[in-house]
Amino acid sequence: MTRMRMAVIGVGHLGQHHARILSQLPDVELVGVVDPNPEQAAAVAHRLGTQAFSSHAPLLDTVDAVSIVTPTVYHHAVAAEFLRCGVPVLVEKPICRTVAEANDLIALAEVAGVPLQVGHIERFNPAFEDLARRPLTPLFIEAERHGPYTGRSTDIGAVLDLMIHDIDLLLSLVGSPVTHVHAVGAPVFGGHEDMVNARLEFESGCVAHITASRITVKPKRRLRVWAAEGYAGIDFVSRKLILVQQSEELRRAGLRVEQMDAAAKTRLKDEVFGRYLETLYVDGDRKWDQLTAELRHFVDCVRTGQRPRVSGEDGRDALALAERIVESVRTHKWDGQANGPVGLGQIPRPAGWLFPPNTQRRDAA
Ligand code: NAD
Predict the structure, then answer these.
(1) pLDDT means per 10 residues in the chain (365 residues)?
(2) Which protein residue's CA is at the shortest distance from atom 18 of ligand 1?
(3) Residue-level pLDDT at 363
(4) 147 lines ligand 1 (CB under 6 A)
């Protein structure tokens, strides 16, 4: 099999891992890495035994596929150039800055007849993959994504930086249009929201609460789904899935607690988990690395022409919903008054100190 000639455009924090993994895939030849920061490009290229470039222009006609891991503001311009040359593109999330830019990339990929994949990596998390294979009719969902401040991705807010992962997961799980969005958010360091909470209502009747924060001490990435079939909980960090469902007996006969005698009611406490509710623990931790799985999938799509699991349209739909959330944050009325304070710029002033300044303790949560 001829090896696929690939390049990574942007080899900062994440791009260097794309490059490392691609350099290790047996059916891929990493022909170069691109970064306007010459030291960064040279260091990564040296480590991986490939060539460093300061611009992607020399690669436009020489590669079979690219992975684009630049800051989001450059996604559209770089991806569009490759797609115009008929080169398949994997572009990191969020697909672009605006839905209009995303639609442009989708159209260019369509004209070129090549795959356009978006890097919503959690779709390749073993715990989520396992859940996505099971029958699920979500009724309500909670998603939390909390991470420490990294100083990166400051060109976007927490919705496009973090929450967009869960937005994509929700859209793929619920499979129904979102009818109502209400969100609140606040900046802590800069002009964009650093923490945000949104309530989404779907046409199917499902309701989701999602929270993202990029200024949290302990990372937490969690999804909990209450569904007609039972409960599913994912910890994306440990890559574990917990499933709870009614037992056959409970589904068939139900449970009439009010008709039980005292002894049966006492037994019930011990029988809830076991006789009536069954639990399955799935440990995805040692199964596979999701970035490798995502890149492998892209390479397979380029070879076979199959539609990527996370297509340009999926990336665009996640971005469109993210834009609605950002707009809701921007127009949120803090005191409910027509002329009252709104949005990120006018959050209520602090009423005082939570604790005396300069007395912080290291054991604070
Ligand atoms: P980063 O700032 O660490 O790296 C970006 C790199 O791109 C830098 O080295 C920069 O010099 C380079 N660059 C800038 N303009 C370029 C251009 N025109 N051509 C080539 N290189 C260019 O940022 P990062 O954290 O690696 O994030 C990069 C992208 O990956 C962002 O879109 C971000 O949203 C996404 N990301 C995705 C995940 C995920 O979980 N899927 C995680 C982190 C970041």
Answers:
(1) 95 98 97 98 98 98 97 96 98 96 98 98 97 97 94 86 97 97 92 94 98 93 98 97 96 89 88 93 88 98 97 98 97 91 90 89 60
(2) 74
(3) 62
(4) no
Q: Is 92 in the pocket of ligand 1 (CB under 6 A)?
A: yes
Residue 40: CB within 6 Å of ligand 1?
yes
Indicate the residue type of 277. Answer: L
Looking from the CA of residue 119, the nearest atom of ligand 1 is 41
Q: Name the token pair of 55.
A: 């611009």
Taken in order 242, 235, 70, 28, the sign of the CA dihedral is negative
Q: Phi first, then psi: what are they for 333, rounded to 5°?
A: -95, 120
Pairing between β-strand 89-92 and β-strand 116-119 as defined by DSSP bridges: parallel
What CA–CA distance (Å, rounded) separates 6 from 257? 63
Superfamily of domain 124-283: Dihydrodipicolinate Reductase; domain 2 (3.30.360.10)
Q: What's residue 293's pLDDT?
A: 97
Reduced to 3 states, what is the DSSP secondary structure of residue 224? Answer: strand
Task: Let me know: does 291 contact 18? Beta carbons within 8 Å.
Answer: yes
Q: What is the CATH topology of the domain spanning 4-121+290-306?
A: Rossmann fold (3.40.50)
What are the residues facing 95 on neighbouring strands? Answer: none
Query: Contact, 198 vs 183, CB < 8 A?
Result: yes
Q: Is 35 close to ligand 1, i.e. is its CB under 6 Å away?
A: yes
